[in-house]
Structures are given as structure tokens and as C-alpha cells.
Amino acid sequence: MNPTRVFVSKAAINAISSLINVPFLRRVGYYLVDKKIQEKLLKEQQKGVLPRMILDQGQMIRNMIKAFDRWVGNKNVKRTSVKKLIRSFLNMGSKENKTIMENFERQFGFSTPRFITLSPTKRCNLECIGCYASSDAESFNHLDYDTINRIVREQKNLWGSHFTVISGGEPLVYKSQGKDILDLVEENPDTFFLMYTNGTLIDKKTAERMGEQANITPSVSVEGLEEETDWRRGKGTHKKILRAFDNLREAGVLYGISITVTTENAELVFSPEFIDYYFGQQGVYYAWIFQYMPIGRSYDLKLMATPEQRVGMFRKMNYWVYEKELFIADFWNSGTACNGCLSAGRKGGYIYIDWNGNVMPCVFNPYTSHNIKEVYASGGDLNDVLLSPLMKKIRDWQNGYYDHGNNGNERGNMLAPCPIRDHHGELRAILEETGAKPADESAETALEDREYYEGMVKYGREVEEMTKLIWEKEYLGIEEKTLKEAKSR
Ligand code: SF4
């Protein structure tokens, strides 16, 4: 994760991808990688990154390596697949990419993003409660295949970025110009794909295809255990997901889960029962946690995990991350492991492109100033989007917040890193200043909804109150005594 980056030559990538299949050499390799990363992180510390953030970053990488090790050790995993996956993954750190990144930085004065999230279609085969996606044929909004392939190619050529996240709608229903989403994966073996999917379409054949390709990991959405998942996604969905897990295991695919946390399931998500069920019994290798964000159809602020729940989840997540070394990341509570907000194409971050071609700073920030189809039609490329005032202003906010916080004299609280939910007033000012447009009707409604605005601002204030002490004590390292004295003054 950002900011750690180790660059190796193409020859070294080929050698590593072959040697990684030998268990002893793998151990030695992990030891060396771990050592190298720790050295890199120490250098970051010398540049002023907080020691506890360095620890969080190091542990995240360690857990990622452990998850990978578990996968390689699985008897269903083909040795050729290990080679393919490692090659696509390590491409992100090849020396050739280093040159591309350095040239970009020289030309534009800031660092390249690490990845893109792409939703090629709005269409979905399910009708989950509250979801924006649709099963109806009329809303078959999608990007054509040539466009998504061009985006993935440009990412590599312009930014040296070999990581693409595919979201939806349901990516596995995507069809365009006679191709599906796994054709995209196949045509770009030097890119690693993370695909969010509802899992219900992963039959044996699809799983085998993914196992052969290996440069893809599906992250299957669940809402909790069977009861919670079926309640939101439809009766019988969980059983289909279990069949998908069986197929993925048999085909030796690296797979995980993603879960949207609301006030309703916040206590369940990090419970021993939940973790044991998915990591133990179902054999998932990782879990992404997304706290519900009130955007999209019928947004509801009451579903956002309360500030108390958010802190509770932070504590519980750290138990699983540090004590059990599981690869779990929470889009908000893991802000310390990636230096805060990843949106707007900042260093190590990303931009989001939806099925209509609207380019947004982040999946959860439905405001836009560019449409990629128009950019391409007028002879532009992904860099035009990155240089837009909207993206630039958000990056300026991120940099300022990280260096100085809200008060101008201290580091920004990375336990409250999000301009949308933790600093909504500041985001609104940026949207107004840059003239960003809502990407859909719900985003337009939210802009005009005073209650929404006030609710979001209040939520941000409460989160700051709840997390400030943890941030000051455990990250800034300020003694409790000093804090009490400062407060009583
Ligand atoms: S804007 Fe918020 S949700 Fe989006 S990347 Fe930043 S912190 Fe995450």
C-alpha cells in the first residue's frame, strides 16, 4: 500500500514468479521482501510519517503476503497460475513503470495514481434493497469494450499502473462487442484485476476461467451471514454464494469477500462467528469492509455506522489484523494504513469511471466534471481528467489535511480521513468552486437536501469528537497528561 514501493527489473519478476513455487525459496523470498519493506517504511518515518502509521502500513503488507502464501499453499492452485498472478502483480513495481512514473511527475508536478475503478455496466441480475444497479433491460447503460480496454491500456502507458478494480452493476453480466469482462482480463495479462461481484454467476466454467487467467481476484459481496445476505439480496442468494466459493476453491482462485456495514450489521462483521465462518469455513483470503455511504437510490443517513460503532469496528479490526494477521481492510478505518483518502488520483490513489463514462474522484463521490467518452472523442486522454480542477482541488485538500489537519497546526486525523462523510462542508465548497455536476438524480437530490447536508456535517463533527483522543494519544503520541492540561486551559 502507499507509500511503500519497491521496484524490480522484468528479469527479476520472471525469476521471482518461477522461484515462488518452491516452498523453501518462498520463505526466504518473504523474509527478504519483508525486510526490504520494513527498510522502506523506516525511511518514510525519517521523512516524518508517524511511527504508528508505519506499523499499520507494515502490518497490512505482511497480512497481504500471508494471504498470498496461504493461497500458494493450496493444492488446487496450479503452479502456472501462481506464476501468472505474481507476474501481473509485480508488474506494478517494475523498473519500466518507475521510468513512466518519474516522467509523469517531472511533467505534471505530482505523482501518478495507483489504480482505476471501473464500472463497465449498470446492469445486474439481482435487485438488492437500496442498490442503484438495475436488472431492467432499459437501463442497460454500459461502456463499450473498446473504451474499457483503452482505459486499462492508458493506465499502463500513462501512469505505469497495472491494477484495475472492476465494480458494477454485476461485472459478470457485461457483454459488449462480443466480449465479456473476463476477455478484458485475458487481454491484459500484465494487469491485476480485483472484481467486486455478487457471486451468483460464478459457475464451474467461470471459476475455471478465472483460475486459468490468475490475474484476477473476485471479491464476493455478502451482507453478513445467510439471514442478512438473503434479506437484502434475495432469498437463496447466500446458497448461490456458497456454491461460488466451492467452484472458486476447486479452480484454485484467490478470492475474498466484501461487505457493506450499516448500523444493523456493524456488531456482526468483526465478531468471531463471522470471521470464523468466512476465513475459517469458507476459506476466503481477504475481506474489504465498506461502511454504508448515504448515496444512490433512497439514501438514508440513519444506516451509516454510528461514530461509536465506527470506533468499535476500528478496535475489533485491529485485533484481527494484528493478533491474527488476517488481510482485512476497512475503506475508512484503515486510513492510517494508506495515508488517508485515496480519491481524486492522488499518489497511490485512484479515480472512478462509471457505466456512462462519468469520471469521479471516488466510487462514493458522485460528482463529475469530465466524461471519458467525450474526452476520448475530443482527442484527450486520462491525464486530462486527472488535471481537472475538481481532482486537483481534492488533492490539494488531501495534502493540506495530511500535513496540517483542520487547525493548520497539527497532522490531520487519519481516523476521520474522508472528505465526503467526515468533512462534508469542505467537500461541498470544492464542488461549488469547481462547478462539478451530479452524476445521477440521487446525487442531485442530495445537493439540494438541506437535511442531508446538515446530517453529514453533524456526523463528521461527532466522528472527530470520538476519534480525536485515539488519534492524539496512539498516533501523534501525545501523553494523556499533556492532553488533559491542554484541555483544561
Ligand atoms: S473520498 Fe472518502 S470514500 Fe472516497 S477514497 Fe476518500 S476517504 Fe475513501
Record field, number of beta strands: 14
- Return the average pLDDT rounded to an integer: 90
Largest sheet: 10 strands, mixed
Q: Give the helix proportion (percent range).
A: 40-55%
Through-space gap between termini: 40 Å
Which secondary-structure class do the elements indicate?
Answer: alpha/beta
Shape: globular
Number of helices: 20
CATH class of the largest domain: Alpha Beta
Task: Outline the fold blueprint.
Elements: H1 10-19, H2 23-46, H3 51-72, H4 79-90, H5 95-108, E1 115-118, H6 145-159, E2 163-166, E3 175-176, E4 179-180, H7 181-187, E5 192-197, H8 204-213, E6 216-222, H9 226-233, H10 237-250, E7 256-261, H11 266-269, H12 272-281, E8 287-291, H13 307-323, E9 328-330, E10 350-353, E11 358-360, E12 367-368, E13 370-371, H14 372-377, H15 382-386, H16 389-404, H17 424-434, E14 437-438, H18 441-448, H19 450-475, H20 480-488
This protein binds iron/sulfur cluster.
